[in-house]
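BUG-1096 | component: ligand-complex export | severity: low

The export step for zinc ion jobs runs without errors, but we want the raw record kept on the ticket for reference. Input record follows.
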Amino acid sequence: MSTISREEVAHLARLARLEVTDDELDAFAGQLDVILESMKALAEVDTDDVQPTSHAVPLVNVFREDLPQPSLSREAALAGGPDTAEDRFRVPRILDEEA
Amino acid sequence: MAQPSRIIDKTAAELAADIREGRLTSVEVTTAFLDRIEAVDATVKAFLHVDREGALAAAREADAAIAADEEASPLAGVPVAVKDVVVTKGLPTTAASKILEGWIPPYDATIVERIKAARMPILGKTNMDEFAMGSSTEYSAYFKTRNPWDTGRIPGGSGGGSAAAVAAKMAPLAIGTDTGGSIRQPGAVTGTFGAKPTYGSNSRYGLIAFSSSLDTPGPVSRNALDAALLHEVISGHDPRDSTSIDAPVPPVAEAARLGASGDLTGVKLGVVKEFAEGAEAAEPGVIAAYEAGVEQLVKLGAEIVEVSCPSFTYALPTYYLIAPSEASSNLARYDGVRYGLRTGDDGKHSLEEVMSLTREAGFGPEVKRRIILGTYALSAGYVDAFYGKAQKVRTLIKRDFEAAFEQVDAIISPTTPFVAFKFGERTGDPYQMYLADLYTIPSNLYGGPGVSVPVGLADGMPVGLQVCGPVMGDDIAYRVAAALESTQDTPLADTAPELEGN
Amino acid sequence: MTKLNSYEQAVADYEPVLGLETHIELDTNTKMFCGCPTAFGAEPNTQVCPVCLALPGALPVANKAAIEATIKIGLALNCRIAEWTRFARKNYFYPDMPKNFQTSQYEEPLCEEGYVDVVVEGETYRVEIERVHLEEDTGKTLHVGGATGRIHGATESLVDYNRAGIPLVEIVTKPVPGTGALAPEVARAYTAELRDIVRSLGVSDVRMEQGSLRCDVNLSLNLPGEAWGTRTETKNVNSLRSVERAVRYEVRRQSALLDAGERIFQETRHFHEATGETSPGRSKEEATDYRYFPEPDLAVMEPSREWVEELRTSLPEPPRKRRERLQEAWSLADKEMQSVVNADAVDLIETTVAAGAAPAAAVKWWLGELSRRANETGDELGALAITPAQVAELQGMVDDGRLNDKLARQVIDGVLAGEGSPAEVAAKRGLEVVSDTGALETAVDEAIAANPAVAEKIRGGTHAAAGVLIGAVMKATKGQADAGTVRKIILDKLS
Ligand SMILES: [Mg+2]
Ligand SMILES: [Zn+2]
């Protein structure tokens, strides 16, 4: 049985902006144990004084000079938008309150 | 060796030479592959989008440039298929997800710019597991791609479309991307060649991110030399990718040619002791084909040395903390505001609800699952124990492999523990699916190159042998793979059953 | 209606602890992680690219100039510059943030452990800096359908991403106890000092009214000798005066709650410019879980010590040192200098003096007439449509006797109305002191003729009565006569 509750999964789903179904809640609750098992497996490894690795070749100080590059045309920028108005991206009301 | 008469049977290197030397035009070649797609893709379903007009226009330009004696790249005029996770200006790009259905990018990935600059026509965009999450292409939001060797079986994943397109000779070359094995495992199960280059040696700019610190684009082909030529087209430093390595590209084409001479005298090949300990997961047929391949390599002069990478045991758990964590954050941008799907915007729902409904409707189950896993792994108080710990264990894995490469030139293994399975066989159990990547994940973690070369058949299905090299040692992997190919009278990729169609 | 205590009562009973979080937009040519320009006021969504729109596949590359600017700020604030530092992702969904995570810094900020000394009423307060880190700004959202563009009650919003990705430096103080009743003034003085420091570095225009410097004010109260209380965080306090008012308001509000035995919630509050009040932020505040993790798309940073030292030697004179130097050069008393600083007129006066005006005159114009104008319109002094060079020019005309004070004020009207330089305004409006004594004598004669009784009084020795005649002459010459000269002519004629 899963060690992570449905409520906890529901909280994660909300953080991740997923409107999950009850079935999904159950399924994910069971499968989250993969993460816990992974964590348990690694917990036994001694990593004191070990530096983290994020990339194959350690890269440092990768910077760009402060030189302007062409932006997209506004048409191209807005072209993908599901809904635009006044040259901006339109979104429904942001606050979750009765309109 | 006599060249085959059908255009689609020729290797990319042969096609390039024919075009360069005027025996064929790029338009003829490109047309042949487009016709092949028309004939057999209804069966294989490797392509999400075919761009006949764009490909032919690029082919005409390539022909004109070659006729005008412009300096041509070694693959000028040779067409290529591109995995749909790579952004192509003006061509639909969906990462096989409903959430990006209909999105037409306003820019090209760096590797696509390089493909275009090399005058290689782009045939279309290939199918994949949604956002590259999967090992069977069954998680495409659009349709399943079939394995040309047996259309009841999966073509591997996530890059099943690119592998199947090449295996079915709908494209001489394709682009794949590899986060935990997504180029190599499909290569192995479709009898094609796939290379994951050193992380950072191929730009990720324009590659739709799954796991930023693991993703690597690379070539898919029917043989080592073709892959190496494409590798050299797309590789090299890119100032738009902060993780791009600013160093010369290893001479992989030269290495493939050297390997083809069939001499591996003095080359030390490592066999990881701990890989074998996990071998109970591997099918006997796979082991047999692999071991036969090892024998061939020994005959060519290679010396086999056992090496130990004790931290290999931690590779899978490390991967399953890093990849979903990064993915959960990388996929946050799909919110229905700036592009892609929007659902539930009916005036009643708030933005948060619309975002949640959009993401619920737009993502498939495997993507949602990994987002939840990653959100959990990063959530309050866990980041050090989970992601941070995994990054440190990654260091230990890297150290193990670096130590191994002190003793050997390359490490060999089966690419994947099993041959292509039947549709639906493993979708119920994520862990069974994950095992597909058991041998491929380590090189994503330590960052070095890995190639999968067809080595034989098991129950009539292809088996791949993986050659991994040290970081920036891509050339040795190509050399060993090409040497193995030289022992095969007919390239394995050319022994696939002929498909229904033309 | 929120219950408030009187401020005096509140600070008699409780000790305030301040904390300030300041965001400063750098004025680099390009954004933090892409090459888009950063110009203020461009047409919506014209300064965006795949990176700052977070299109699929796009990747960030850090702007070196922004990192240098942040290190300079850190050095100017006496911070330690990290030898190893990296960016982190702060994950949360918001429509003005294209990636739905902010690329920021978490446990490894670029600069740490600094301080700023500020002087309030002759007392020096050391404000300790916890960290200075680099992040990116968000886009701008236009709220439609609600009252006056507010997010509350809006039916939809429109997003412009031009600002998204502009480099933003966040400066966080440690809690500042011990300011007592002067907490509002210390908060203001710190913000002003920070602004002056950053401006002197030339890395941001730090214009609060344009949002290139934004403050969040943290405040808690505790009883003397007891542990610190729960703090509130008042967001987006966008003028020096507002910083002061926000602190004052929270002190009054919190003390009333505490007196009533209620508890203070740790919450985000909003400051209302119009009323000077604060109100709670989002009603359903979800527990924030930003899921910070190191940004895998960016390389770590290891600022070399040579680089840091090179930047250190490039730092300009600190504003405080500069103020001390100027005060001496201008021969101002402490209190006068304090007025100059409070009016935000140091730069203006310095430039005016450099353009040739005497310090006393420059101070007089900026703190007097021009401050009055700025107050009338509610503008910052520096936002007035008159330049220091023009003020110097105006004073030059006064010095030459071409303008008197009254005329000079009329010239200022013209300059502020955009009619040109002082000389141009004077010429266009015909505002010159009449120095033609012939014309003045005629005007005096006419005034004497029209006011025989007054003339008689003056002849009788009542010189004070001359004012009536002077007024008449001034009226006749439309104020363009020099009053002293007129008086002299009158007295000469009537004695
Ligand atoms: Mg911040
Ligand atoms: Zn941009």
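Assignee comment: Attached the raw record above. Chain B touches chain C through 47 residues (CB under 8 Å).
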